[in-house]
Amino acid sequence: MSVFAFIIIIVGVVTLGEVMSKYLERQPVRPAVDPAGESGIAELRERVDELTDRVERLTEEQRFMTRLLESASSGAAIPPQRDPGRGRDPGPQNQETN
Prior knowledge:
Helix content: 55-70%
Number of helices: 2
Distance between the termini: 132 Å
Oligomer: single chain
């Protein structure tokens, strides 16, 4: 390889390096987290919290139903469900007149 070709390669590599460094300096620095993604993450966290609350309620309901079924199978008396119509004042139309 001749000295002339070697010098041309060195000059080309150095020039290419300078061009690349100036190009990278001009590139805008992108934020690490996209602002739109941040609101999406906040919404996702909120939905996870809602789901956690629902799961907790379902767990409590399941425990309650399990206790009811266990008490029914053990022979314990389950209090009767109150009729919504009972316990009200019959009103004047249902009262007997003497």
